Structure to design on (335 residues):
């Protein structure tokens, strides 16, 4: 029996995927982080950061928690703050979906919307962080979790990787990990290194993201890539990087739900597409693990909405096997 909802965080299922790619010579697994009670991998980081701050005396019952989030971290913090009885303000921007905002408010969070992007970068992330810092200065006894730089974000994912390694008896040949704050990537990499497990880590980044030095560009899917290189990022932790576009995320997600019955978020679709691009380099007999950060219900009005996809991309096939290189290159060129 679990003692309270936060004790249900972690120990998410690791499932074998046999239908999405045909006739592969390697074994493919997915770590379903959407099975956390708040619906995403960010539950781990939210609890890790808040628990440490409470133990260190940085948070008391009158503290106001203030964070910037595109959705999942905000929901994870809203859930934890509701449990601990803490006031929580989440700073969001217009890319945050109405579902995510409604979920945060259902937990009792206050939502602060930033409508003007940062003047220098033209992006909302820096504007959100500046708003958090302004609020923190104006509200006494406030706490900024700073998911972008707080080491208790990656520390939470030592457990994520421990769960995977335990189930596969230490044989994790490839780990496919989407990136945003880089907390999951760094935490898993640290665990592998400290336990001397010979695993290759493939970081999945968005086309238009600057995390690994890419050129900044327009991105539509929240939580896939970043407009600012997060302080937690250490490029040497990844053995290779695969770039995936918004359109490819959509194709990956729709293929995943049709082939495997898994309704997952944009970063999960990105991981699927990364495997499709990297497949020729995966050794026969290898154990390849993808981390699926969240569930797909939060993307029903975007990734899984035909109207939204047609509006932004013209058209999109339902399955990966329907995508020809010519079709995809034409659509990417039109973005």
């Amino acid at each position: 029996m679990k003692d309270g909802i936060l004790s249900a965080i972690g120990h998410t299922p690791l499932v074998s995927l046999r239908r999405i790619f045909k006739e592969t010579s390697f074994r493919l697994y997915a770590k379903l982080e959407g099975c956390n009670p708040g619906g995403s991998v960010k539950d781990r980081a939210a609890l890790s950061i808040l628990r440490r701050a409470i133990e260190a005396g940085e948070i008391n019952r009158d503290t106001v928690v203030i964070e910037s989030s595109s959705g999942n971290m905000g929901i994870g913090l809203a859930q934890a703050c509701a449990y601990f009885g803490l006031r929580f303000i989440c700073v969001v921007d217009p890319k945050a979906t109405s579902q995510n905002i409604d979920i945060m408010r259902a937990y009792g969070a206050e939502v602060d919307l930033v409508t003007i992007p940062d003047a220098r970068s033209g992006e909302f992330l820096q504007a959100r962080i500046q708003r958090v810092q302004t609020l923190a200065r104006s509200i006494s006894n406030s706490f900024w979790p700073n998911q972008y730089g707080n080491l208790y974000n990656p520390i939470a994912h030592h457990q994520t990787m421990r769960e995977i390694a335990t189930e596969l008896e230490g044989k994790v040949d490839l780990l496919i990990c989407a990136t945003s704050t880089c907390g999951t990537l760094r935490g898993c990499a640290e665990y592998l290194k400290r336990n001397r497990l010979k695993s290759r880590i493939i970081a999945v980044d968005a086309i238009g993201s600057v995390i690994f030095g890419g050129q900044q560009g327009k991105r539509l899917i929240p939580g896939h890539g970043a407009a600012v290189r997060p302080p937690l990022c250490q490029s040497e932790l990844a053995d290779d990087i695969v770039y995936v576009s918004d359109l490819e995320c959509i194709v990956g997600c729709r293929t995943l739900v049709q082939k495997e019955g898994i309704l997952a978020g944009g970063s999960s679709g990105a991981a699927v597409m990364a495997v499709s691009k990297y497949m020729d380099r995966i050794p026969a007999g290898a154990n390849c693990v993808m981390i699926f950060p969240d569930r797909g219900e939060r993307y029903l009005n975007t990734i899984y909405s035909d109207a939204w996809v047609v509006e932004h991309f013209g058209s999109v096939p339902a399955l990966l096997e329907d995508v020809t290189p010519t079709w995809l290159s034409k659509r990417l060129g039109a973005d």
About this structure: Strands lie at 14-17, 27-32, 64-68, 87-92, 110-113, 142-143, 174-178, 200-206, 240-244, 287-292. Confidence is low (pLDDT under 50) at residues 323-328.
